[in-house]
Automatic annotation (TrEMBL):
Chief site of localization: cytoplasm
Protein name according to UniProt: DNA polymerase IV
Gene name, Swiss-Prot/TrEMBL: dinB
PANTHER family membership: DNA POLYMERASE KAPPA, DNA REPAIR POLYMERASE UMUC / TRANSFERASE FAMILY MEMBER
Family membership noted in the UniProt record: Belongs to the DNA polymerase type-Y family.
Superkingdom as given in the UniProt entry: Bacteria
Purpose of the protein: Poorly processive, error-prone DNA polymerase involved in untargeted mutagenesis. Copies undamaged DNA at stalled replication forks, which arise in vivo from mismatched or misaligned primer ends. These misaligned primers can be extended by PolIV. Exhibits no 3'-5' exonuclease (proofreading) activity. May be involved in translesional synthesis, in conjunction with the beta clamp from PolIII.
C-alpha cells in the first residue's frame, strides 16, 4: 500500500534590506535619508551595497564607483565595517534560532529557514515570518523582507517581490502561476549567459520556459535542463540544510581598489591564511590541498592548487604554500580584485562552533 504524500514544506527566505548601507545609516544619524554607497569611491573602487535613496538614481551593487558618482553626484561613499555587519548578522541568526534549528545561511544578510516543524509550534509560516521581521526591527533597528512558500526556489524569489520591508507568500496552489509570470533572468540558477540564450530561443518568462518540453531543454541546456523544467512548474525538492558536510573551507577578500603591488599581495595572502587557519581550527578540520583564487579587474578568475601527502599541519605551512602559489603568478597581468585561499580534501572532525556562512565576505 502506497504511503500518503508528505505535506508541503514551510520555507521562509529572509533577506535584510540594503544590509551594509542600512547598518551605516542606523549607526550614523547624519547618513539617514541620504544616498550612500558602502565601498570604494575612487576611480577603481566598487559599490558593495547602495542605500535605497541611492538606488533611486540607478546605483547598484558591483557598480564601479566612478559610474555611481556620475549617476548620483551627491552620493556619499562610506568605507565598509565588516565586524559591525557580522555582529548584526549574529543577532539576526539568534532570532532565527528561536523558531528553528534548520537554518541555511547564504551570506551575512540572508538565509533559508525550514519551519515545517518549529520550536513555538506555530502552524502558520506567514505568522512566523512576520514575527521574525518584527523582532529584527525591534532588536536591531533594521528591516528585513521575507518570502514564504513551500520550497526554496520560490521562497527566495518571493522575498524580493515586495522589498524593502515587505513579505510575499506563495502557497502550493499558486506556485505554478507565480513562476509563469517570472522573467527567466530572475530565476536563481539562470545566469546572464543562459538568460541571453533563452531570449534567443524566445523564452522570456516562466510560462515560455514551461511551454518547452524536456527534450528541447536538454538539447539546448544539457545537464541543467531538468532543473529548468521543474523550476518552470514551481517544483524544487532541495531541503534546507542546517549543517552541510564540508568539502572545503575558504576565506576570500575583495578589494575596493585593484591590487598590483607585490608586497601588498603577499601581506594580504598572509592575513587570509591566518584567518583561514583560525576557521579550520574552530571547525576541527584538516585538509591536504591548498587552493589559491585570484579574481582580476576584468572579473576573470583563476585558481591554482598544491596537494600534500598529509593534511596541512600548521598555520605557517599554510601561509607558505599560499605565498608560493601567489608568487608563481607574479607579475599579474592586471590588478587583483579578489584574493582567496581554501583548504580542500578535508578530514572533518566536527563542525565549526558558532560560525555560519563565510568568514570573509566576497563583494
Amino acid at each position: 500500500m502506497d504511503s500518503p504524500p508528505s505535506p508541503p514544506r514551510k520555507i521562509i527566505h529572509i533577506d535584510m534590506d540594503a544590509f551594509y548601507a542600512s547598518v551605516e545609516q542606523r549607526d550614523n544619524p547624519d547618513l539617514r535619508g541620504q544616498p550612500i554607497a558602502v565601498g570604494g569611491g575612487g576611480p577603481r573602487g566598487v559599490v558593495a551595497t547602495a542605500s535605497y535613496e541611492a538606488r533611486a538614481f540607478g546605483v547598484r551593487s558591483a557598480m564601479p564607483g566612478a559610474r555611481a558618482r556620475r549617476l548620483c553626484p551627491s552620493l556619499i561613499f562610506v568605507p565598509p565595517r565588516f565586524e559591525a555587519y557580522r555582529a548584526v548578522s549574529a543577532q539576526v541568526r539568534a532570532i532565527f534560532a528561536r523558531f528553528t534549528d534548520i537554518i541555511q545561511p547564504l551570506s551575512l544578510d540572508e538565509a533559508y529557514l525550514d519551519v515545517t516543524e518549529n520550536k513555538p509550534g506555530i502552524a502558520s509560516a506567514t505568522r512566523i515570518a512576520e514575527e521574525i521581521r518584527r523582532m529584527i526591527r525591534e532588536e536591531t533597528g533594521l528591516t528585513a523582507s521575507a518570502g514564504v512558500s513551500y520550497n526554496k526556489l520560490i521562497a527566495k524569489l518571493a522575498s524580493d517581490q515586495n522589498k524593502p520591508d515587505g513579505i510575499c507568500v506563495v502557497r502550493p496552489d499558486q506556485g505554478a502561476d507565480f513562476m509563469a509570470a517570472m522573467p527567466v533572468r530572475r530565476i536563481h540558477g539562470v545566469g546572464p549567459v543562459t538568460a541571453a540564450r533563452m531570449q534567443q530561443l524566445g523564452i522570456e518568462t516562466g510560462a515560455d520556459l514551461r511551454a518547452r518540453d524536456l527534450p528541447f531543454l536538454q538539447a539546448h541546456f544539457g545537464s541543467a535542463a531538468p532543473f529548468y523544467y521543474r523550476a518552470a512548474r514551481g517544483q524544487d525538492d532541495r531541503p534546507v540544510h542546517e549543517r552541510q558536510g564540508r568539502k572545503s573551507i575558504s576565506v576570500e577578500d575583495t578589494f575596493f581598489d585593484d591590487v598590483t603591488d607585490r608586497d601588498r599581495l603577499v601581506a594580504e595572502i598572509d592575513r587570509i591564511a591566518a584567518n583561514l587557519w583560525g576557521r579550520a581550527e574552530r571547525a576541527r578540520a584538516r585538509g591536504r590541498t591548498v587552493v589559491l583564487k585570484i579574481k582580476f579587474a576584468d572579473f576573470r578568475i583563476i585558481t591554482r592548487s598544491h596537494s600534500l601527502h598529509a593534511a596541512v599541519a600548521s598555520s605557517d605551512l599554510l601561509a607558505q604554500i599560499g605565498r608560493d602559489l601567489l608568487l608563481a603568478q607574479l607579475p599579474l597581468r592586471m590588478g587583483a580584485r579578489l584574493l582567496g585561499l581554501g583548504i580542500h580534501n578535508l578530514e572533518d572532525d566536527g563542525d565549526e562552533d558558532g560560525a555560519g556562512g563565510q568568514l570573509a565576505l566576497a563583494i
